[in-house]
Design a protein that fits this description.
Low-confidence stretches: 279-283
CATH architecture of one domain: 3-Layer(aba) Sandwich
CATH class of one domain: Alpha Beta
Strand order of the largest sheet: 3-2-1-4-5-7-12
Mean pLDDT: 94
Number of strands: 15
Helix content: 25-40%
Largest sheet: 7 strands, parallel
CATH topology of one domain: Rossmann fold
Distance between the termini: 32 Å
CATH superfamily of one domain: NAD(P)-binding Rossmann-like Domain
Order of helices and strands: EHEHEHEHEEHEEHEEEHEEHEHEHH
Radius of gyration: 19 Å
Number of helices: 11
């Protein structure tokens, strides 16, 4: 049995905690608010801990991490410079953790013009969020506890993603919608996190994405038709927040082969097309 700590157990972290509990591992989940942590713990079988990375002092952070072999970080960077993650790396070393698993983003990569992007592609983020993720990666990598960075594509799943937003009537195409976007189902991301924590000698970086990147317009049009809805409207790029525009114009097709080769990861949800064909559900 391995003792895991999931920092910032929100949409993805709760899935990780549930998966670990089901196989018999000891899991602690943290949220900034104690009642939020307790809610996640009740749903997943984990132990709850209120912890705010940006506010906790170094001694208390090390004490919270003590006794946990693998620390999973799903929380977004609290600051843009990686300072909080540097403190976390130091605390993990003091606490005797053997591995950190950091859920980063494919937003750390440079725009690709539709090319396939593997882990050796240049990291030159065009958004503030991407720059903060890259700073966090570098801070954790500089610590003494080995860290695996999982660069996740756009996360979808129950209640989250294009289909959920189409059903709610809130989805809008950004600009022409003709650039490629990669995605990953939350359960496949959770499985990758567990594999990264378990592996004897993982690589420092893995992309986590399904097998079937496509343009935003292709997915939205097909999904709307499958749901019996009209195609969603478009919003001109110049009317969209630059952070959002940056995500939807980077035009990357994310290559997941290293994760499959090294860790044996196989997505249960390899394509949005299987969802629309009724082979699984988004409910």
């Amino acid at each position: 049995m391995t003792a895991w700590l999931v920092l910032g157990a929100g949409y993805t972290g709760a899935r990780v905690a549930s998966l670990l509990h089901q196989r018999g591992d000891a899991v602690t989940v943290t949220r900034r608010r104690g009642d939020d942590a307790a809610e996640v713990a009740a749903a997943t079988g984990a132990r709850a801990l209120a912890l705010e990375l940006a506010a906790i002092d170094d001694d208390r952070l090390a004490a919270a991490l003590a006794g946990h072999e693998v620390v999973v970080v799903t929380a977004p960077p609290p600051a843009p410079d990686g300072a909080v993650e540097a403190r976390l790396a130091a605390a993990a070393a003091r606490a005797g953790a053997r591995r950190l698993v950091y859920v980063s983003s494919t937003g750390v990569y440079a725009p690709a013009g539709g090319a396939w992007v593997d882990e050796d592609y240049p990291t030159r983020p065009v958004t503030a969020a991407g720059r903060a993720r890259l700073a966090a990666e570098r801070a954790l990598a500089a610590g003494r506890v080995p860290c695996v960075h999982l660069r996740a594509a756009g996360i979808h799943g129950p209640g989250r993603g294009v289909i959920a937003r189409l059903r709610a009537g809130t989805y809008r195409l950004i600009g022409p919608g003709d650039t490629h976007v990669s995605r990953v189902h939350v359960d496949d991301l959770a499985a990758a996190i567990v594999l990264a924590g378990d592996a004897a000698a993982p690589a420092p970086v893995y992309n986590v994405a399904d097998d079937d990147p496509c343009t935003s317009r292709e997915l939205a049009t097909a999904a709307a038709a499958a749901l019996g809805l009209p195609p969603p409207p478009s919003v001109p790029l110049d009317l969209v927040d630059p952070e959002v525009a940056g995500m939807f114009t980077a035009d990357r097709r994310i290559d997941n082969r290293r994760l499959k080769r090294d860790l044996g990861w196989e997505p249960r949800f390899p394509s949005w097309r299987t969802v629309l064909a009724g082979e699984t559900t988004w409910a």
